[in-house]
Design a protein that fits this description.
Low-confidence stretches: none
Shape: elongated
Number of domains: 1
Structural class: mainly alpha
Strand content: under 5%
Oligomer: single chain
Largest sheet: none
Number of helices: 5
Length: 150
């Protein structure tokens, strides 16, 4: 059974580290980089820098979504599902966490994406990065609550 514990720990750590990197990146973009760029660069320079950054950030966003989805489903199925049988509130909190995570995935994809349909949202990047970061923090907080339920 030591290997089962090892696998569960690896998936949990993978999930937590990926969430921290992704949400930390959103917080950095919104509250550090975006204000600094708006103060220091012309609109043309800002657009050029944004394109270079998003080319790299896009990879982090889509890789994070994939890892979080797979590791989250594993964690739910292998570890957490038994808690729900004993604690009715568990599935309610998990549902809120899952919906908030889907919101993060959607908004992060829009902000990192290139679709012209979502360009109006990207133009208001500060607002939507802030919303995405706040939802990400909520997901992490709910994960901590769920993990520590008796």
């Amino acid at each position: 059974m030591a290997s089962d514990l090892t696998i569960r720990l690896l998936f949990r750590w993978l999930h937590v580290v990926t969430a921290v990197v992704a949400v930390g990146g959103l917080v950095f973009l919104r509250f550090v980089l975006l204000p600094a760029v708006q103060e220091a660069l012309t609109p043309e320079q800002h657009a050029a820098l944004r394109e270079r950054l998003m080319r790299r950030w896009r990879i982090v966003v889509f890789a994070s979504i994939a890892v979080l989805f797979v590791s989250g489903m594993y964690n739910f199925m292998a570890v957490s599902i038994n808690k729900g049988r004993e604690l009715p509130a568990y599935h309610m909190l998990f549902g809120i966490k899952f919906l908030a995570a889907l919101g993060v995935f959607f908004l992060a994809s829009i902000m990192a994406g290139r679709s012209a349909a979502f360009e109006p949202l990207r133009r208001r990047g500060g607002l939507w990065l802030g919303v995405t970061a706040a939802l990400g923090v909520l997901v992490i907080l709910l994960g901590g609550i769920l993990h520590n339920l008796p």
